[in-house]
Amino acid sequence: MTNPIEQFQIKPIIDLHIGGVDVSFTNSSLMMAIVVTVTTLFLTLSMRPRAVVPGRWQSMAEVFYEFIANMLRDNVGSEGRKYFPFIFTLFMFVLLGNLFGLIPGAFTFTSHLIVTFAMAAVIFVGVTVIGFLRHGLHFLSFFFPKGAPMAMGVLLVPIELLSYVFRPISLSVRLFANMTAGHIILTILGGFVVSLGALYVVPGVVPLAFLSAVALLELGIAMLQAYVFTVLACIYLHDAIHMH
Question: What is the pTM of this model?
Fold first, then answer.
């Protein structure tokens, strides 16, 4: 049976060190570049005709556009429109990273905590800066619920502050854990199918059917986690703009 952890190993494709720092181009970097390239080509080529009656590819691009626009409007409001390019890019990057990682032999960069935490940290720093730019020091009142007794401040402020600081951790771990667990399960079940003879031996049919069902479930989880990651970013943005 294949080692289920081996699929998460980052391997250098172009070994490169600058000033003693390892800046090698890895399999993770390659998948990120592929996702960015595919997303750019998809949106550029599908929207090039700009037909009144959209074709198949243009319709698909417009569906993504409308979906993210509605998500942003529902969770942030009209003031969130200026942040649409970032939210749209974030969703497409995470979605295609999750989906492409399901292709046999591909690398799932969203299964690495350093990647998901880096994205979550950018969101965290960004919304915090937006909050202070819009509200100044009044943004600090976000950590004291409106209407709460002043005497409760000693207890509420540390709790609210701790909850706020842990946002990038919970956001990154949620995506990382779901993608890692799903791929490990698929690898283990795939090993069972191979060891039992797959379709050539009757006992192998059951694991193969179960593997197919889990693969479909993992496909749904990949799309769901991209949505959850993005909608939470929208909620954090809403907090920065509107506060309580």
Answer: 0.89
